[in-house]
Amino acid sequence: MGISVRLPARLERLVSRVAKERGATQSEVIRNVLTILEKEDQKARGGATPCQAMKHLIGCASGSPSDLSMETGKKFRGVLLRRRTAR
């Protein structure tokens, strides 16, 4: 995905200098900085993605068949085919 960002001259010089020092492109430098900010943001918000926050709950249900997630795609396709032929 493309995006254009206008930077003040001071930041533009900084990005150029860091890119030269690291042998990277300016885009790589900006992506790396944004990745660092993303990680800091996750830590500030507890560091958990929704999946990580629910990790202790995943697989905790009991009493159901153990193969519920096996071949889910095939089962779903079967449901769709039956609906189409029922019309």
Model description:
It is a single chain. This protein is an all-alpha fold and 87 residues long. It has a domain of 41 residues. The protein is 60% helix and 0% strand. 0% of the residues are buried.
Provide a brief overview of the structure.
This protein is mainly α.
Give descriptors for this structure.
elongated; mainly alpha; 4 helices; 87 residues
Q: Helix and strand layout, with pairings?
A:
Layout: H1 9-22, H2 26-44, H3 50-53, H4 72-86
Please give the number of β-strands: 0
By DSSP (H or I, 4+ residues per run), the number of helices equals 4
Note the beta-strand portion: under 5%
Secondary-structure element string:
HHHH
Structure classification: mainly alpha
How would the global form be characterised?
elongated
Which stretches are low in confidence, meaning pLDDT under 50 for 5 or more residues running?
none
Task: Give the end-to-end Cα distance, rounded to a whole number of Å.
Answer: 41 Å
Average pLDDT, all residues: 85
Radius of gyration: 24 Å
- Note the main sheet: none
Helix content: 55-70%
